[in-house]
Design goal:
This protein has 140 residues and is mostly helical. Helix content is 82%, strand content 0%.
Amino acid sequence: MNTMRWLAVIHVAAALTWCIAALRLPGVVGRAIAQTGPAAHTRRHAWQLFIGIATPAALATLVSGTALRAAQGPDAAWPLLHLTVASLLVWTHGATVVLLIRLERRQHRSLLTASRVLCACTLALLLAFSAQALLMLPRV
């Protein structure tokens, strides 16, 4: 397998891992809110998921995507949609930090609604990535 294919495989695998972790986090936040007793274990789990899985996957996605772009050269047909979706995923990653900090401070007011909106945005971005990838497949 050539370098471009390896970069593409790493990029897609990291992006999927990032999106799956981003989709899982609002559920963990919701479970932490629903707990009536001490929710320290669930809050710790949310931070571990964010720091241990989502953030490294985000970095791998961005680095491999940048390497792909550099390897393709300046004439590559990189659609604006791809860069827009990547930028919005970075924004949702930052919004997740805000959710986790609010959870840590026990500021639960509208936190569950915000986590559901964030989950819906991440899912929409994942679908946009999938549609964009399908559009880039060679026509047979």
